[in-house]
Amino acid sequence: MTPVDAVVIGGGIAGVSAAYYLANTHRVVLVEGEVQLAYHSTGRSAALYFENYGAAAIRPLTKASRRFFHDPPAGLADSPLVSPRGALWVARPDQEETLVRIETEGRETGCRLIPISPAEAVEMVPVLVGSRLSRALHEPDPLDIDVAAVHQAFLRGFRLAGGDVVTGAAVTSLEHRTGRWILEAGTHRIEASTVVNAAGAWGDRVASMAGVAPVGLNPMRRTAFMVAGDAMWADWPMVIDADHDFYLKADGTQLLCSPADETPTDPGDARPDPLDVALAIDRINESTTLGIRSVRSEWAGLRTFTADRAMVIGPEPGDPGFVWLVGQGGTGIQTAPAAAELVASLVRGEALPSHLADYGVDPERLAVDRLR
Q: What is the CATH number of domain 87-140+218-305?
């Protein structure tokens, strides 16, 4: 049996970031059920650093994470983690109220939003059909995130701090005995005083295994696909339909597209539904002159939500040795640095880091109590 201070369950962005911040003061083991880290949600993300996105309780975590992406600690990254992108919200006449809400929420978050005319939107992204638009909003500040580089940065930092990684070892048993957790995963048996549940869509299953009440996680499938593009489109902002009926983003000589679907599904290896791909193509072809006829590649990932669409971060009431870090709901990449710092401070019993407080991070709005 391997005794450690903390075991983190889940090798996606949430798990590796939490393990990294904890390893400064704890001996930590990261346990992942798949042979490959970041196989499910993180590895299939079309990540954008987008402050005008997510539940109100989550947005301060996004803002507080910006510093890490722009200036990661020395030795963690060999190249920039983010690059300019921008976003363009587009609305038909029947979507104007939705666009007003998006603008209001964005301004409350402190985002820069520039109302533009349909003609200006078409000038920015020439494939848009201007006659279908009534309004548009340009957000200059969203950034593309190099997801693989961010994940690798946290993993590198974790290993440099002496952390251990176990892969291909699904957790099969998690018991609390005399103040310590006994975890069995594959051929490994690990003893720890703290368990961080960063298991994504499997978070409730891990909790049940530990004798902890689930929080009601809802895994949702999100479909994406690539179509032919043009390198000349590289400077286009990400185009997002106001009702999230579709989005598209230039990616080298291709376009990344999605119906922005949220289809309830069981935890597992998500696969795209051809009907979702076809629906997205129809929506995009109606709104643009792209005339998409074929798809180069397609995939699906999981986005896991709580009932109020905000994360669950912090210790289980009555059992502070079981710590939640789940329910990212599509914001897991852009919030990872701040969310992990928050977890680490809670595990250590420290005060909220001052820079998180400065951005308005409120642990009470993320605590599990609200869902009990």
A: 3.30.9.10
